[in-house]
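Protocol step 4 of 6: structure prediction from sequence.
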Amino acid sequence: MEFAKRTLRFGEEIFAALNERKLALESEGRKIWNMSIGTPDFETPQAIREALCEAAMDPESWKYSLRDLPELTQAVSNYYARRYGVSISPDAIMSCYGTQEGCGHLALALCDEGDSVLLPDPCYPVFKAGVLMAGAEPAWYPLNKEHGFLPYLPDIPEETARKAKMMIVSLPSNPVGSVALPDTYRDLVAFAKAYDILIVHDNAYSDIIFTGTPGGSFLATPGAMDIGVEFFSLSKSFNVTGARISFLLGRKDVVDAVRLLRSQIDFGMFIPVQKAAIAALNGPLDNVKAQCELYRQRRDALCGGARAIGWPIPDNMGSMFVWAPVPAHYERSMDFCMDLLDRAGVLCTPGSSFGPHGEGYVRFALVLPPDQIHEALASIQASGILVP
């Protein structure tokens, strides 16, 4: 049997290859410090769990939801007003089963075969996957160290900009850990208006920022609502990754197009999950703020500890990820990752899996407490892998 040619658009699943090697080492009794996948290890707040359990006991909750509950979209609207100072109508908000699913549906709803989409390089792999599923073409814009790993719009060729249908931006960034400067979003709005481009902003990490200023929303920028949409995820702020709770909001005609597509695919988000999301959005944010400080302690343990053993890893500015340069005596990030796992028992992700400009780096997820990070660094130092 011949399968759809679209399946050939996707490369090797690097995470699967690394996990297979990890399982083999663990079966041999090896200790593994796993910092490859961004799954928070913090506990989900009790009020969120209780809301889901209470809803699950109602027999009516087990029917098709068919739509987002009005109290859910209102809760998102209220949250954006309270947290980001953004006024947005509930009818310009829809739920997604995680931003990963949302990105795929967005591309399918907006892009035709051959359309061009500007993607950050490096970027979260699902951005590229969504574009490829729709038959569109990625047009990479590099995130370089010289520009603080932020979009540098003057370097995007005019021909490329004129051809692009939309542009995906993720700040704070996965994987590079950069945070928007005051002018970043303003410049993006002007760029989008000049070239008639839709800006799609992934707002997953606005509660994990170490610059001393609170994270914001792209949609708070004047003019952003005219040219942009935003994915807003509860996964990292409220530790609900397995529940897959995300929202697409912003320019209403774009949200409506994705909503129409989704109506042909599923029957709406499970009502107990919607109730859990409402509890998160309407609840206090003290735990979210305290959690950011815990992430900062982990960042300091990893980056500062690495520099102390001769590995010059700079501090990330935000997100739960650290972007680390590969030692100069390694040519390929995948080779370094495999050696790091085999020799030191430390698992991270090769930068090459995030795009062409990711080569030469690896990504660490801050999913271990400081004491275990120190253990991992001690194992790295003892392995001698940093020495040519």
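Step 5 (inspection) to follow. The two ends are 49 Å apart (CA to CA).
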